[in-house]
Each structure stands twice: as structure tokens, then as C-alpha cells.
Amino acid sequence: MKNRSNLIILSIFLIWRTALFVISFISLKYFPFQPRFPYSDIFLIPSGFPKFLWSFANFDGVHYLTIINHGYSAQYTQVFFPFYPYLIRIISSTFYYVSPIVVGIGLSNIFFLLSLFLFNKLINLDNIKNAFWAIIFLISFPTSFYFGSLYTESLFFLLVLSSFYFARKNKWLAASFLGTLASMTRLNGIFLLPSLLVEWLLQKKVPQTKISNLMKEALKCPALYIVPLGLLIYMAYLQLTFHDALYFWHAQPVFGAERSGSQIVLLHQVFYRYYKILTTVQFGSEVFFISFLECFFTIVSILCLIGAYRKKIRLSYLVFSVFSILIPTLTGTLSSMPRYVLLAFPIYVYLSSIKSALLKMIIIALSLILLTVLTSLFARGHWVA
């Protein structure tokens, strides 16, 4: 039964991966390449690889290639955390005849396949009957192509799921160490700290009415001391090298999207800003389309997490997801939100609990249509998330 399940997951992955390459290939015939990012003429076009392949290294991918090839020599690339690019750098140096583009995209796909296997195991720990549907919702999500791109999504997703899985198995040192790697991969890896603390307290069954007991028990959790190390090590490096431990945060506004790096903007203010955008820009324009998607994904993800809470999906998973979705909005924008919500995996578990098979199929069909559109746009250099 286990082997059959893994074989099904492998088959779904291969279909997904092949379909994305086909979509990228077909988009070459209908959309001109209009890169909205730098370095495509340095790292991608001269690579000699087919366009449908290197298109999955667009946008953040070229910044990771810069770090892989030259370290943090390019100004403001410090917003990208080091574990993913330096892992590619080490492997590329070992197999020097293999391009970092191939290594990066290859690793991302391997990490995502492993994530699918682990996601299935994690769901089954709670005896959820619709694990298959959850995987289908995940893989058909409109921005799932990032899992197969030269981005941190797949590695980070694998680390998060692994950390939760080992925590559920009461292997806290392993769970905490994986949390360290996650916090060295992306800033929101630090959100594993409160999430694992919640999981620790759930397992210890400390009465929630006694705050003092909760605090005493929380201080015993290894995650409290180990998970932040990844972020702290990177901050120490930034301080020693660039004299700014928070360089990764202070450089955020440089990458556009009117992201604030100096003040906190509340969610209702962000939604008001998007109301102004959607009522002033030309209806049907690309700016309107992307702004609408950013707002739509944010609202739907919040509603799904509320539904997941009502379905009593594991509280520690929900804590991680809520932080991952809400904290980025404090920068004053919903930019990249269609990509950020991709990692809020309780959403897929919640969607899998929908009783109507017809409704599930409709959601998946619409997701696949949007996945096709967004993959095509991304492949041809248009900003998606």
C-alpha cells in the first residue's frame, strides 16, 4: 500500500513537471521574452540551454545565480538568504562540469518530490482520509511552478515539513536543527520557532490556563535555542561584512513593490491601498490583473486558514501559516503573496476536506487554468509573484 502510494505521487509529480516544461515551450511561440529583471543577458540567454529550461531561473533565480557565482558581491542581494545558493555552489563546485542552472533547477525538483512524499506522511499522522486530494490541491496550485524553479520554495518547504514531522515523532533535536536550516534559507523560517513551541506544549499537555506553567515548559523546548541560530549566523555575517545585521530587511524597498523596510503597515491599510489601485488602474491591464491576484490570494488564504482552524487542523501548522501570510503584509504590500501562500500547507488539507467531489474538481480545474497562465507569463519574463 505504501509503495503504491509513493508510485502515485511520483507519477503525479512527473506529469506536473512535464506539463510545466510543455507550457513554457508553447509560451515561446505566443509571448515575446520581456524580462522585468536584470542579468538575463549574463546568466540565462548565453547559457546555451533551451529557453523552456532556463526560463525557470527567471527573476529571483538570476540573483541566486549571482550569489552562486560571485557571493554577495552584488549590492542588495543580501535580501536572499544563503543556505540555498551556497548548497548549489558546493554541488556545482564538486561537479564543476554541470551548470549551476541545471544543478539549481534539478535540486528544486528533487526537493519538491521529497516534499510530496513527506507531506503525505505528515498528513497521515493525523489519519486524514483525503491525503491524496491534499496533494492534488498542492501540485495544481496556481503558483506551484515555483517549486520547480531556481527558487527556495521547494527546499524551504521540505525543511518545514521535515521539522514538523520530526517534532511530531518527538525527535526534537532533529526538528530544531532542520528549523535552523530553514531560518538560514528564508526569513520566515524563524516562524518555526513559535510553531514548534506550540507543538511542544501540545505534546506536553500543559494546562493552557496556567501561564507560568506554559512558560516554564516552553523554556525546556530545544527549538527555542536552536531554530534561531540560522538567522543569527546570517545576521552576524552581515554585521561583520557589511556593518548592518539587518541588511536583508533594510534592502527590501530596493526590490520594488513599494515594500517598506522602516515602518509597519497594518493589514487594513494595505487593503485600502489595493482598493485604490484596483479602482484607478485600467481594468484588464497587467497591473490590474496582478494586483487583483495578490489581493485575491491573500483573502482566500485567510479564509481557508479560518476554515482549517474550524476543522481542527493541527494548531502548530496553523501558527506557522498565519505568521507566513500576515507578517509579509506588514511591509505595506501584498506583492508576492500568491507565492507566499503556496507554503501554507494547511490550506490544502482544508480544501481536501470539502465533501463535494464536483466542487473539488471545479477548484482544481480553475487552479490548473491559472497555473497555465501564470507559468506562461513567468517563463516570458513577466512579474507574477
TrEMBL record:
<dbReference type="GO" id="GO:0006506">
    <property type="term" value="P:GPI anchor biosynthetic process"/>
</dbReference>
<comment type="pathway">
    <text>Glycolipid biosynthesis; glycosylphosphatidylinositol-anchor biosynthesis.</text>
</comment>
<feature type="transmembrane region" description="Helical">
    <location>
        <begin position="287"/>
        <end position="308"/>
    </location>
</feature>
<feature type="transmembrane region" description="Helical">
    <location>
        <begin position="223"/>
        <end position="240"/>
    </location>
</feature>
<feature type="transmembrane region" description="Helical">
    <location>
        <begin position="315"/>
        <end position="337"/>
    </location>
</feature>
<protein>
    <recommendedName>
        <fullName>Glycosyltransferase RgtA/B/C/D-like domain-containing protein</fullName>
    </recommendedName>
</protein>
<keyword id="KW-0337">GPI-anchor biosynthesis</keyword>
<feature type="transmembrane region" description="Helical">
    <location>
        <begin position="172"/>
        <end position="202"/>
    </location>
</feature>
<dbReference type="InterPro" id="IPR007315">
    <property type="entry name" value="PIG-V/Gpi18"/>
</dbReference>
<feature type="transmembrane region" description="Helical">
    <location>
        <begin position="7"/>
        <end position="28"/>
    </location>
</feature>
<keyword id="KW-0808">Transferase</keyword>
<keyword id="KW-0328">Glycosyltransferase</keyword>
<feature type="transmembrane region" description="Helical">
    <location>
        <begin position="357"/>
        <end position="379"/>
    </location>
</feature>
<dbReference type="GO" id="GO:0000009">
    <property type="term" value="F:alpha-1,6-mannosyltransferase activity"/>
</dbReference>
<keyword id="KW-0472">Membrane</keyword>
<keyword id="KW-0256">Endoplasmic reticulum</keyword>
<keyword id="KW-1133">Transmembrane helix</keyword>
<feature type="transmembrane region" description="Helical">
    <location>
        <begin position="95"/>
        <end position="119"/>
    </location>
</feature>
<dbReference type="GO" id="GO:0004376">
    <property type="term" value="F:GPI mannosyltransferase activity"/>
</dbReference>
<dbReference type="GO" id="GO:0016020">
    <property type="term" value="C:membrane"/>
</dbReference>
<dbReference type="Pfam" id="PF04188">
    <property type="entry name" value="Mannosyl_trans2"/>
</dbReference>
<feature type="transmembrane region" description="Helical">
    <location>
        <begin position="131"/>
        <end position="152"/>
    </location>
</feature>
<keyword id="KW-0812">Transmembrane</keyword>
<dbReference type="GO" id="GO:0031501">
    <property type="term" value="C:mannosyltransferase complex"/>
</dbReference>
